[in-house]
Structures are given as structure tokens and as C-alpha cells.
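Whiteboard transcription, Tuesday session. T.W. wrote the C-alpha cells on the left side:
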């Protein structure tokens, strides 16, 4: 079960990092602003910051748990 949580968290962080591409990039950022996928740019940035921080905390928690189980 813990391995499943770790894999899901890893993929989630990868997807979030791709969504947080720099504003100058023409790739995903122009798609997100044209389609209004994530709402206004400032609220989308804040939302992605919160979700990224939660994902990182979850990833670190799972990594520490794995480390304690292997020792």
C-alpha cells in the first residue's frame, strides 16, 4: 500500500511540475491561459503552489517511512 502511495505521489509531482512551466514558455502556459483551464493566472499559481507543497510534504513523509522500514 505504501509503495502505491509513493508511485502516485511521484507521478502527481511530475505532472504538477510540468504545469508550472515558466510564464515565458509558449508550451503549456499559453494553452492554460487560452483554455482557462486553471482559472486566472494568479489563482492558478497560488493553487499550484499549495498543491506542490502538499505533494512534496507527502513525498518526504513516504520517503522517511520507507527509510525507517528498511532499517
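and on the right, the sequence the group agreed on:
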Amino acid at each position: 500500500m505504501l509503495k502505491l502511495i509513493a508511485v502516485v505521489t511521484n507521478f502527481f509531482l511530475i505532472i504538477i511540475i510540468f504545469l508550472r512551466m515558466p510564464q515565458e514558455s509558449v508550451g503549456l502556459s499559453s494553452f492554460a491561459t487560452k483554455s482557462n483551464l486553471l482559472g486566472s493566472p494568479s489563482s492558478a499559481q497560488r493553487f499550484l503552489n499549495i498543491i506542490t507543497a502538499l505533494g512534496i510534504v507527502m513525498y518526504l513523509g513516504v520517503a522517511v517511512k520507507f527509510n525507517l522500514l528498511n532499517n
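Someone added at the bottom: The longest helix spans residues 41-70.
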